[in-house]
Design brief:
It contains 13 helices and four strands. By secondary structure, it is mainly α. The chain has a two-stranded antiparallel ribbon with strand order 1-2. A two-stranded antiparallel sheet has the order 3-4. The longest helix has 33 residues.
Amino acid sequence: FVEIGPEVVHPGPDPEKSRIKYYSENSLIDEVRDWFSWPINNRLRQLRVDELNITEEDMNDLFYWNNVEGLGLISVDKKTGGVQDAKQIGIGETIIVPYIIVFLMFMMLMMSAIPLLTAVMEEKLNRIAEVLLGSVTPFQFMMGKILGGIAVSLTASSVYVIGGVITARYLELGNMIPYDVIPWFFAYLILNIIMVGSGMTALGSACNDNKDAQSLQFPAMLPLILPLFIMMPVIQSPLSSFSTGLSLFPPFTPMLMLLRLSTPVTIPVWQPWVGLIGVLIFTYFSVWAGGRIFRTCILLQGQKPKLANLVKYVVRG
């Protein structure tokens, strides 16, 4: 039931007398409580307006709400040289498209780079690696795994990108697609798979059972998971120091730089290139360090993958 205080029309100094109380066993999430608030408050507002002798036309004018329309910047037509009117920016190009691009990269990494840890561990446990190392070097073995992951991800991502472009054009939404970001997507995707894949193959070579693999997989995936938690702040302020700094941190660069490039905001030209160079350097280090761990651990049996030992393998080889 509902209890309406005696002073709801004109609240006085005692707030208890102007309260509206709804009693129910499940009142916190009861939809009836939300429904009651609209008719009661509308009626109270009408009573106050009637006492002030305000007409319906004056009331409509009084409560008229002006929305602030979001538009992009005025631009110059490259073909004609004329000034183009600003276009309305919707939620699609502002939020949905950047989210799709980042999650597509995350999905490709989960499909091609992350499984390398368990794949290498299983080949080590089943002694398949010993047979393969009779024909190739450890580095060739590791890079073969990574190149296979790149081939899988490029094939799958090409299907998604081409299919997405065709679908968007069919639905007359082609203007929402940032075509200039597509080359950056594939460049960062390849480097990210090499960077993550080299780490996963190295950790897989150090594992002796599924328990070891599970204990190492989550820490290794943190550089991929953490950017997902800060996507909205980056989308809201892609030019802030926070967004710029994190997007230039090599483990986060592929996902966060793509996210910034996918927004309607113009990113300084030098930042994607600096991010790409940083990722190249970090990828080279990852392959070098992963190769030294892989070469040492792939034939070791029964030794737990401790962080101190992995660092020692990187330093001493």
